[in-house]
Write a structure and sequence with these properties.
homodimer, 250 residues, DNA-binding
Chain lengths: 250, 250
DNA sequence: AATGTCACTTCATCAGATGAAAATCCAACT
DNA sequence: AGTTGGATTTTCATCTGATGAAGTGACATT
């Protein structure tokens, strides 16, 4: 069970780390960010191939390859003779790594913070429950290691966030369900992008330790009901924090 | 809130329903199905562009566009002079509509059935809970309509399955969270593919009605705890059914 | 045996040409 | 006036050829 070292930002599209300079990747990011960011609204058409060639300074093949990638992510639809139009939001692959970063990286909107917090409340307790049902010894060990890292980094805000993400990922991984783990990996991309919302005081970080401890303990003992309840407490606290943060600063 | 009429199968990639004949779409499906199906293993390289041109009977542009789409879905990675290799499974966009159908459409494996059943147990109770917290009047009405359709189709296996999927989708939609709804839409793609597992006797269908009724009622009354419990019962029953089905037929 | 060079493989990218489908426009007809 | 029919144009679809760049691997030299 690998701990998915998925690319943080342009995960899927960046085929070669050394060369995000690939022309089609440029096109994908330029157009993708504009679409998800809202400056290219659903239903409207994007500039025609020839214009994009000029605007983005790449050849037509690069434009076409990029457009096809975005079509594969559900953002675009090409129609012969009618140009290429932005598809409605419901067609987007919202849990694509690129789409998520285009959405959450640029100064997340309060509404998106709410969506993310609600999502965790909806998913994490259930995931912890299944984790308690399915975890094998190795998975439990990984959760314990992640917990130890959490204690070890409680004084450093940045490493603590990473340890926190790793702990929750270990819980999802313990459920032995690749689809579920994928969902969390995508959530963690979004969480990393909005981490300033969760960068609380060191004192506050320490307050969350007992909650995490209870989650780990319940899974270790295969107590699914307790694991679920403990995790619910953790994410409800996170949601309350996020809401308060939004109220204060926005 | 649209009830996501997402394309069932080749959702994202099929830009134009009339023309799945598009060359690049051919390439995407031919290679994508082989990769997800396992006949092109992670780490191995796919045939070089020139060979694919011959093998698939399309031009090089089509091959390149298709390969780029698959790279966008995390399935492939191209390297200059080293060919194009299949990326490890952890890099795949598992919740991409195409990837899901390549995985679940061809005679699903028992392991995949388990993953799917566990996923519902992990997610749906939490989703029902948030739905009870966030549902507005319109959302509640849509759930009630879906419930009525469930009763109305209890005697017809096929329509009942659709009504069942629609009911669960209405619950997710009520949570007012686009990411959560997207997750369910992907789950429903997989569920539709393995529906024979859920095609139970008409009598059995009727037995599930009270459970669904309780879910709807709890959400209607904004009773999140009860909504969660009721939904848990529903999906636990479904999981038990799926397990039994796997034991019997496989 | 180690190393440096060189040819080769393979993808990256651009440019040009042809084709096809659909939208638009305009005129003729009812 | 409204509708229909076709001609025109726009725009993407696709193939082909050429050039470039980045690794790979073999081979010869020391």
């Amino acid at each position: 069970m690998k701990t998915g070292a998925r690319g943080i930002a342009c995960g899927a599209v960046a085929t070669d780390p050394q060369r995000d300079s690939a022309r089609n990747v440029q096109v994908v990011h330029a157009l993708g960010a504009r679409i998800v960011g809202g400056s290219l609204a659903p239903g409207t058409s994007i500039p025609i191939e020839e214009e994009l060639v000029g605007e983005l300074g790449v050849g037509r093949s690069a434009v076409r390859e990029g457009v096809k990638v975005l079509a594969g992510k559900g953002l675009l639809e090409t129609r012969r003779s009618a140009g290429t139009i932005v598809r409605p939001r419901e067609s987007w692959n919202l849990l694509d790594a690129d789409v998520l970063s285009w959405r959450f990286e640029p100064e997340p909107r309060p509404e998106d913070i709410r969506v993310l917090a609600d999502l965790r409340v909806a998913l994490e307790p259930g995931a912890a429950r299944v984790a308690a049902e399915r975890a094998d010894a190795a998975a439990v060990r990984r959760i314990d290691e992640a917990l130890a890292a959490l204690y070890a980094t409680a004084d450093d805000p940045e490493p603590f966030i990473e340890a926190d993400l790793a702990f929750h990922q270990a819980v999802f991984a313990a459920a032995d369900n690749d689809l579920l783990l994928y969902v969390y990996d995508m959530i963690s991309i979004a969480l990393r992008s909005v981490r300033q919302v969760h960068t609380r005081s060191v004192a506050h970080n320490k307050e969350t330790l007992p909650g995490h401890e209870r989650v780990a303990q319940a899974i270790r003992r295969r107590h699914h009901r307790k694991a679920e309840e403990a995790m619910r407490t953790v994410v409800e606290v996170a949601r309350a924090d996020a809401e308060q943060h939004v109220r204060l600063c926005c």
